[in-house]
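Run log, item B.
One chain of 305 residues. Sequence copied directly from the ordering sheet:
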Amino acid sequence: MVSPNRTFALLVVLSSGLIAVIGWSAHHLLLAGAPALANASAWPSASCLLLPLDGDYLPHLASYLFLLAIGAGTLVGLRALVQQQRQTQALLRACLAARSRRRRALDRLAWRLGLEGRLDLVDLAAPVAFCYGYLRPRILVSTGLLTLLPRPELDALLLHEREHLRQRDPLKVGLGKLLASAAFFVPALGALYRRYLVEKELAADQAAIRAQGGTTPLAAALVRLLDHGAFPNPVWSAGASEAIEARIDALLGDPVRLRLRVGRTPLLGSVAVALLAALPLLASPLLLEAAVSSQNVTAGCHLAT
């Protein structure tokens, strides 16, 4: 059985832990050569901490590279998240501008599936259903979907989306994308994020199957949507396109083998980056000894009390 929450938790722990280690390593390198290392009651001035002095160039250069990695990764992650959010918001504005007035049909649908107050019905010919929203997720459904799918298949698809809503998957997708992008220099974390995208789709399918007691309605709904050429776009259903093959295999009863799609070289590179990030922490006694014995740096550095 798939465990998307466990995969997501592992992604959060590994990526945030790596970022914290890189930041702490940069901190150690910046303090290397500062007299505050030998005198715990004092603290190096900002100029001493941030600017290299005689004999202190190498640790500072290394710290700059660590900080650059964190800054560049965070900017890449934020840019990717903002871009996806803009695309999603543009789609939502276009859809919600055609909000349907068929409240009775919407209320019956919401009551039947336990989604009162969480459904938005829009007048669109395209068969669409997706979960959106970070803090209070909702489900958008098009009238085209209501027309295309018979009731059991419609229920199966919305039960799938209900699981995304319950698990707050839009928030997890956004946070996971930010963390994986921020740690872009570690390919294994990107592979872990892509695995989560697939697992959350399989878990939502399993929830729909449990609720209906069989795979037939959901399988029929997916086949009908694929035949109609209306499978969800990744812009509003992150991971849906990547998971379709695994979803079909699972519904057919075939074994689904989820593996981290990362080659040996990227995997070894990920391990090397992690070891390099922790190296200043492992070598902190050497840094301390070098700091105490460095007379040139000590003489040119002022302490701030």
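Observations after the first pass:
- The longest strand covers residues 138-142.
- The longest helix spans residues 57-96.
Flagged for discussion on Thursday.
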